[in-house]
TrEMBL record:
Name by which UniProt lists this protein: Chitin-binding type-4 domain-containing protein
Domain of life: Eukaryota
Family annotation (InterPro entries): Cellulose/chitin-bd_N
Ranges for domain Chitin-binding type-4: 25-137
A matching Pfam family: LPMO_10
Length: 351
């Protein structure tokens, strides 16, 4: 269990917004329990990336690390595993991870297991761009005479562009179904994507509850509206990034194969890319999204019935109830956004 309070509701929960190293500003006195584990064994760390901050020009990483002591310093932590961030094409995406690590072989009464999300996203620069979550543990002497070990993998991808790398049409809509069989989760809905206006809308239904998400990347605002109980939350958005596939656009997606049968079950042909645990497929013709799936589980998002725009402007008009909401749950650094705009304008002047 992480230090301090713990809540996953709503998305963007303040209990997840912990920037200060090494443990998000929470010391050992805030711990609710100390988990007892056996030294040298394999342990599966379960955590959720509560909001996605993928930054295409310089994608971040997530890692799990370990340190000895009651309140260790940043330099005391050693990385057990590290892997690339991924692009779900929705800032307000919750992703569950189940990561196996090799615990150190030496016992300790007071030690810390930590998960970090290193976003590298300049729009997250307030107290840094990295999120920290710590859990207090105790490692007992191993009872096993032979300890299984795993090699620390290097998940870094050698950046290599491919001629098949592509972007979706600038304006389109598509239906989708998101399935996580391990927890009997199913959601479905429709996505509206409009690159010219830098707006998106997600309509999703989960267990007879319907949500609308309106995202305006010019204003930097996202409204998250519960249709059933007529409530709305306001979020801050990261920078706009086009819906694209491959290292040419997203510097962590390696091209695998062209013109394969789409894994979504569609009769069309697809191209496929990989970023660690995640497989991305888009149609060979048109580059429409087809499926986003995971190698470690049967989780997948299947896209279908794609249609080209233009999309009527009223699609992106939030419910009036949302305009009453003025408190932003997850705001971003406006000076960072303004600085980037100035740099882009300066580049245009020099060109």
């Amino acid at each position: 269990m992480q230090r301090g309070n713990f809540s996953l509701d709503p998305p963007g929960s303040h209990t997840c917004y912990r920037k200060m190293a090494p443990c998000g500003g929470y010391n050992s006195s805030t711990s609710q329990q100390r988990t007892v584990l056996e030294a040298g064994t394999l342990y599966t760390v379960l955590f959720q990336q509560h909001i996605n901050h993928y930054y295409p020009p310089n994608p971040g990483k997530l890692d799990v690390s370990f340190a000895r002591g009651l309140d260790p310093l940043e330099e005391d932590f050693q990385t057990l595993v590290s892997f690339n961030d991924y692009n779900p094409m929705n800032h307000n995406t919750q992703t569950n991870f189940s990561i196996e690590v090799q615990l150190p072989k030496q016992s300790c009464d007071y030690c810390v297991l930590r998960v970090r999300y290193l976003t590298n996203n300049p729009d997250e620069e307030d107290y840094g761009t990295t999120f920290h979550q710590c859990s207090d543990i105790q490692l007992t002497e191993s009872l096993s005479s032979s300890i299984q070990s795993i090699a620390l993998e290097d998940h870094a991808i050698k950046q290599q562009n491919d001629s098949h790398d592509c972007c979706t049409p600038p304006s389109f809509q598509t239906k989708f179904v998101h399935l996580i069989p391990d927890i009997s989760y199913t959601s479905s809905g429709e996505i509206y994507y409009d690159q010219p206006s830098k707006q998106m809308r997600f309509t999703v239904s989960i267990k007879n509850v319907t949500y609308n998400m309106w995202m305006n990347f010019t204003s930097g605002k996202q409204y998250y509206f519960n249709v059933n109980n007529q409530t709305c939350h306001l979020f801050g958005l990261n920078y706009w990034n086009d819906w694209c596939y491959g290292n040419t656009y997203n510097q962590t997606e390696q091209f695998l194969i062209a013109n394969k049968s789409c894994s979504s079950g569609s009769s069309r042909l697809c191209n496929q890319w990989q970023n660690g645990d995640f497989l991305f497929e888009s149609t060979s013709s048109g580059c429409y999204p087809s499926i986003l799936s995971r190698l470690s589980s049967n989780e997948r998002t299947v896209y279908f019935d794609a249609k080209d725009g233009p999309i009527p402007s009223e699609i992106f008009q939030p419910n009036p109830i949302c305009f009453k909401e003025t408190t932003m749950i997850h705001s971003h650094n406006p000076s960072a956004r303004f600085l980037k705009q100035l740099l882009q304008e300066k580049k245009m002047w020099h060109n």
